[in-house]
Write a structure and sequence with these properties.
The chain is mostly helical. The protein has 16 helices and no strands. The protein has helices spanning about 30-60, 65-70, 70-75, 80-85, 90-105, 110-135, 150-155, 160, 170-190, 195-215, 220-225, 230-245, 250-270, 285-300, 310-340, 345-380. α6 (about 110-135) runs parallel beside α15 (about 310-340). The protein is globular.
Length: about 375
């Protein structure tokens, strides 16, 4: 997640309109220059994860109400409406992912790209699936556990297309990430990443996703992800801007991605005011959160937050993924134990639950990711 490798491949013939503009970055950036940007990006990743946690603990109804004993709307009569916007942390994640995956795949062979992505995702994911499966199987836990067979399928990360019950509620976002990785690998990494190819990938994917919206073909929806594509593509465009802030094509990709992305976000999350609904998200609020996500990543890409270079942000970035994996379902168990079992106030329970999930994420990072990620990466990179 911290590579700043720049491709040395030359643009293909026949794409003269997309030649590198004067002043474009053609050499690796200085380590000190990129470190601040990436640490700011790590901090933003944790903020996005905490947004999602706010949503899962206090911004929605459903099974979390069992943990609190009543609806979170009763627990947080004022804040629940703000927590409801936390689900947009996922869209922010996707923008960050587009930026990071383009950076990671630039100048890297396919085997190395695959090894990097698989080793980054799988160790913590496997352990999180096993932990949540084991906890939900305990007699004292009131939530339904998945069957042993379904739990095993979950280890493949392919439970969503197979229609298998999910162990981790957040794994639907990982399925979107995996599809993005596959598209980027086939269209950009395999033939060799360069600016022209990345621009054509963004333009082609966006156009195809928009067409798929009205094609009424489920397969196209699965592959092209019309509702999430603008956020991944926007992140890729911001990486082009990171390489050269005067890249008009990069800015064009970002602008179109934001325009279409906010449309999908509003369409998916806005509804007319309804007293029976858990909460009400205004269209202005949804657009504002999406815009803030794009603007913040853009500020990092342009180096405007290069002073946000505190070392602890690297730790924050390392905790984000394991925290994201375990916080929802295990958080329910902790909320039930603290609020209904020990009778702690809602605010205290909320804070202690987030803290406990961060501590578990720290353990997963130290004892699972740090020892296993490099070993898995090396094994996959060597495989023929």
């Amino acid at each position: 997640m911290t590579e700043t490798v720049v491709s040395t491949r030359k643009p293909q013939a026949g794409v003269a309109p997309l030649v590198e503009p004067a002043g474009a970055t053609t050499h690796p950036r200085r380590r000190a220059d990129s470190a601040g940007r990436l640490r700011a990006l790590d901090g933003l990743r944790l903020v996005a994860a905490l947004m999602v946690a706010l949503y899962h603990y206090g911004g929605r109804g459903g099974e979390v109400a069992q943990a609190w004993g009543t609806s979170p709307r009763d627990q947080f009569p004022t804040l629940h409406s703000l927590f409801a916007y936390g689900c947009l942390g996922v869209q922010v994640f996707f923008v960050i992912s587009g930026f990071v995956i383009c950076m990671s795949g630039w100048g890297r062979p396919l085997t190395s790209f695959f090894a990097s992505r698989a080793s980054r995702l799988l160790p913590a994911y496997w352990v999180a699936v096993l932990i949540v499966t084991a906890v939900f199987a305990l007699p004292v836990v009131a939530y339904k556990a998945v069957s042993p067979s379904d739990a095993l399928v979950n280890l493949t990360m392919l439970q969503m297309p197979l229609g298998v019950d999910r162990v981790l509620g957040v794994c639907w976002t990982l399925w979107a990430e995996v599809r993005f990785y596959a598209l980027f690998a086939l269209c950009v990494v395999l033939p060799g990443a360069d600016r022209c190819r990345v621009i054509m990938f963004c333009a082609g994917w966006m156009l195809a996703a928009v067409i798929a919206e009205n094609a009424n073909m489920p397969l196209l929806d699965i592959v092209l992800m019309p509702e999430y594509a603008p956020f991944f593509i926007g992140g890729v465009g911001l990486y082009l801007v990171h390489r050269d802030r005067r890249d008009v094509y990069g800015w064009g990709i970002v602008a179109v991605s934001w325009l279409i992305g906010q449309h999908y976000a509003v369409r998916g999350l806005w509804h007319a005011p309804d007293p029976e609904a858990f909460s009400y998200r205004s269209s202005f609020g949804i657009v504002a959160v999406v815009t803030l996500g794009f603007v913040t990543v853009a500020a990092i890409a342009l180096g405007l937050l290069s002073r946000v270079n505190w070392r602890w942000l690297t730790v924050a970035g390392a905790l984000t993924y394991p925290f994201y994996l375990v916080h929802e379902h295990l958080g329910w168990v902790v909320i039930h134990a603290l609020h209904r079992g020990l009778g702690l106030p809602s605010g205290v329970t909320f804070a202690l639950t987030v803290t406990s999930m961060l501590l578990l994420a720290l353990l997963l990072n130290k004892y699972v990711e740090k020892p296993l990620t490099p070993r898995l990466r090396a094994a996959l990179a060597k495989a023929r």
